[in-house]
């Protein structure tokens, strides 16, 4: 119970819980046929989606801070710094357009909500592309180090080698989890940005968008759990 309270009190925890509701209800309303149930699920989807947008107001400030700290971080190599910076920059504009979209939806400002939402989703998709490239790069580096350590060697410090291999395995597991989460998010991002429509001539269906977002949300909840 204590962990549940700590989790629910976290802003990130509340956001990801609402994300589960948002995409879970979106997927279910596409799968079920009862019109009353579909209407209720659509109401839950809309409410949780808009609630998440309110949670994320001014989140661009956090991204700006992350970019400044990233440029000052000397513990990572230049390719990784560049990929992370580009990802955070795209997320900066994602939050910015997302904030403007919800402010427009509640009539606080007068802007085209649909255009702002599409711009936000496009920036989200770009951010995920850079995130995906960085994850794949880290995976290749991890596997290369793992293979090198497993080669026959005269090194007598077997305990140290085993600990390093275990650490690499743990890091690799996290990379795989983040890959699945990123790929899950790419489905609703591509759908909202209409990228799938441009490439395939057909957008993702509601159930696939719901499934992708739900998988990502569940992984995020698992990672945020105290």
UniProtKB/TrEMBL annotation:
Highest taxon above the source species: Eukaryota
Location in or out of the cell: Peroxisome membrane
Q: Which GO terms describe its biological process?
A: peroxisome fission
Q: Name one GO cellular component term.
A: peroxisomal membrane
Span-the-membrane segments of this chain are 89-109, 121-141
**Coarse class of the protein's main subcellular location:** membrane
Q: What InterPro entries does this protein map onto?
A: PEX11
Query: Which key words tag this protein in UniProt?
Result: Membrane, Peroxisome, Peroxisome biogenesis, Transmembrane, Transmembrane helix
Q: Which residues form the signal peptide?
A: none
Q: Does the record bear Coiled coil in its keywords?
A: no
Classification via PANTHER family: PEROXIN 11 (PTHR12652:SF50), PEROXISOMAL BIOGENESIS FACTOR 11 (PTHR12652)
Return the protein name: Peroxisomal biogenesis factor 11
């Amino acid at each position: 119970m204590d962990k549940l309270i700590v989790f629910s009190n976290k802003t990130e925890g509340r956001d990801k819980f609402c994300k589960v509701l948002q995409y879970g209800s979106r997927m279910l309303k596409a799968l079920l046929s009862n019109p009353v149930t579909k209407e209720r699920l659509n109401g839950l989807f809309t409410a949780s989606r808009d609630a998440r947008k309110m949670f994320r107001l001014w989140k661009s400030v956090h991204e700006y801070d992350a970019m400044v700290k990233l440029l000052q971080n000397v513990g990572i190599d230049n390719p990784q710094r560049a990929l992370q910076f580009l990802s955070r920059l795209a997320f900066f504009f994602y939050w910015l357009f997302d904030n403007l979209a919800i402010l427009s939806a509640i009539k606080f400002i007068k802007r085209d909500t649909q255009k702002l939402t599409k711009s936000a989703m496009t920036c989200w998709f770009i951010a995920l592309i850079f995130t995906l490239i960085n994850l794949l790069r880290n995976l290749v580096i991890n596997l290369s180090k793992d293979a090198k350590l497993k080669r026959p060697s005269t090194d007598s410090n077997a305990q140290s080698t085993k600990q390093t291999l275990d650490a690499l395995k743990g890091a690799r597991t996290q990379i795989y989890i983040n890959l699945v989460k990123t790929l899950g998010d790419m489905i609703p991002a591509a759908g909202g940005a209409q990228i799938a429509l441009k490439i395939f001539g057909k957008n993702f269906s509601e159930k696939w968008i719901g499934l992708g977002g739900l998988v990502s949300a569940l992984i995020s909840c698992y990672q945020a759990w105290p």
